[in-house]
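If you are new to this repository, start here. Below is one unmodified record pulled from the training split, so you can see the exact layout before writing a loader.
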Amino acid sequence: MSADSLANFFIDKSIEEGKGLNNYRLQLISYIAYGWVLATLNEDLTDGEGFQAWDVGPIMPSVYHQLKHLRSESIDNLAVEYYFEENHLVHRWIKNKDTLHVLNKVWAIYKGFSTKNLKAEVRKKGSPWEINFDRAHQFNVIDKDEVKYFYAKEIESLINSVKVS
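And here is the target side for that same chain:
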């Protein structure tokens, strides 16, 4: 897994469904998915890169920098990894069925959220972003175990809120 493969899942979904997805929205939904997969499968989709606590919210630096030239425009190309020595590009993909199942659930739930609502979701009181964000020392890495624990509680709360008849 890599940060690019996580980004590519959501970029591909947004293109396939005609849903505009800019770099910031990609960061927000990728962070939520990162949390869901950590909580349910104990799998780090970023291969250790994780997310940093920036003033705007949780950011996956490698993906952010790769796409920042687009500013707020919709992303229409997949994230790539460039191998200088071999002079070629590689598109990374997630292939694990369980992981894809969780990511599809995250997409189904959050794709309709406004950017404002996604931002509120990741910046909730007591969230890993809030705990790790420090205006004086921006770019702190958000602790993976905090993300896992927070999203385990979020998922449990979501499940408990569903009424079964």
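Two things worth knowing about this chain: The first helix runs from residue 3 to 17. The helical segments are 3-17, 23-41, 61-67, 97-110, 115-122, 128-132, 144-161.
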